[in-house]
Design brief:
It contains 1 helix and 4 strands. Strands 1, 2, 3 and 4 form a 4-stranded antiparallel sheet that branches. A hairpin with a 5-residue loop joins β2 and β3 (59-60). It is mainly beta. The chain has a domain at 13-60 and 74-79. Helices cover 8% and strands 31% of the residues.
């Protein structure tokens, strides 16, 4: 488990909106920014984690607070 240790009674399970299952698979949504539009003039690749319900295949939409959204940056940037 990553992050700080939290007592189990404080953890609220996240459930699939469609089927109420609690098990999800991790995938990566990939993106690309052309060299013409990137800030450094080189082609960029990004990766964002997404989760899919193992029971019904629905993708989980995690809603972030406005503060988290403003601080959000791509999890990986690779230049060519």
């Amino acid at each position: 488990m990553y992050g700080p240790k939290v007592p189990q009674d404080l953890i609220e399970p996240i459930k699939c909106e469609k089927c109420q299952a609690e098990i999800f698979e991790l995938f990566h949504k990939m993106g690309k920014v052309s060299a013409l539009r990137s800030p450094n003039g080189k082609e960029l690749f990004t990766s964002s984690p997404i989760y899919r319900c193992t029971a019904c295949g629905t993708f989980l939409e995690l809603k972030e607070s406005k503060e988290e959204e403003e601080e959000k940056q791509p999890s990986a940037i690779v230049t060519k």
